[in-house]
From TrEMBL:
Superkingdom of this protein's organism: Eukaryota
Listed SUPFAM superfamilies: S-adenosyl-L-methionine-dependent methyltransferases
Gene3D superfamilies per UniProt: Vaccinia Virus protein VP39 (3.40.50.150)
UniProt cross-references to PANTHER family, sorted A to Z: HEPATOCELLULAR CARCINOMA-ASSOCIATED ANTIGEN (PTHR14614), PROTEIN-LYSINE METHYLTRANSFERASE C42C1.13 (PTHR14614:SF132)
Lineage, highest ranks first: Eukaryota, Viridiplantae, Chlorophyta, core chlorophytes, Trebouxiophyceae
Transmembrane segments: none
Protein name per the record: G10168 protein
Length: 242
């Protein structure tokens, strides 16, 4: 297991970290997050906060949203742990885009996948710290690497079996870069899973951009999602190259 050192600057270095346990199927994750550093506070619903900030971009930057756990991460991790696309996660290679606190990637690593968690350089130390906390109790085949959407894949693993991303579809200005990365990273056999909350931020446009790059996609039926998230606000998109 490769983990980058936990040296964090800026908002991520704020010492007012909140520690939480997350139960994903049979796995218990120990996750630290930084609501204050992200711009989210305890008296706000996190998903509502990001919607408000998106409508008023001048209020606060969204550079640090990866410092907290969004509900879409739980939705995606819960679904994937229960329904591995290749019957098992053992030895399945996974790249996570926008890993943030690492809930999805760490869950899949606990299930036996070989996972590479990626995010912006100022977020990856936070992802790595959470990975190390859980690796203390589990033998995980996982690593954390900085990666900016739209850039060459560099040393990222080639032709992963699965690419995942939770709540990465919320800023239209980044859609083209995200689609470009998915196109570069995905092989014909790769399955892509993206979860997001519907916020009216051009989600259909994003799916159209994926289709224009040669992807076909379907939405996972809500009855396969956790019972608390079947009201229509959350979606899981499953996509692959034609």
């Amino acid at each position: 297991m490769a983990v980058v050192p936990f040296r964090v600057s800026g908002a991520a270095a704020d010492q007012s970290l909140e520690q939480r346990l997350f139960q994903i199927g049979p796995y218990t994750l120990f996750i630290k997050q930084n609501p204050k550093g992200s711009g989210a506070y305890h008296n706000q619903q996190l998903d509502d906060m990001i919607s408000v900030e998106l409508e008023g971009r001048s209020k606060a930057p969204l550079n640090n949203v990866g410092l907290v756990v969004w509900q879409s991460a739980f939705v995606l991790a819960d679904y994937l742990i229960a329904r591995p696309p290749f019957r098992t996660w053992r030895d399945v290679s996974v790249i996570e885009l926008g890993s943030g606190t690492g809930v999805v990637g760490i869950s899949l690593a606990m299930a036996g996948a070989r996972v590479t968690l990626t995010d912006l350089p100022h977020i990856t130390p936070f992802s790595a710290h959470n990975l190390s906390l859980n690796a203390d109790k589990h033998s995980l085949d996982a690593q954390v690497m900085p990666y900016t959407w739209g850039e060459p894949s560099g040393s990222l693993p080639e032709a992963p079996d699965v690419i995942v991303g939770a709540d990465v579809v919320y800023e239209q200005e980044h859609y083209a870069a995200l689609v470009s990365s998915l196109h570069m990273l995905a092989a014909p056999h790769t399955v892509v899973y993206l979860s997001y909350r519907l916020r009216g931020r051009g989600e259909k446009e994003f799916e159209s951009m994926l289709a224009a790059k040669g992807f076909t996609g379907t939405h996972i039926s809500e009855d396969q999602m956790h019972e608390e998230y079947r009201e229509g606000a959350y979606k899981i998109l499953r996509a692959s190259k034609l």
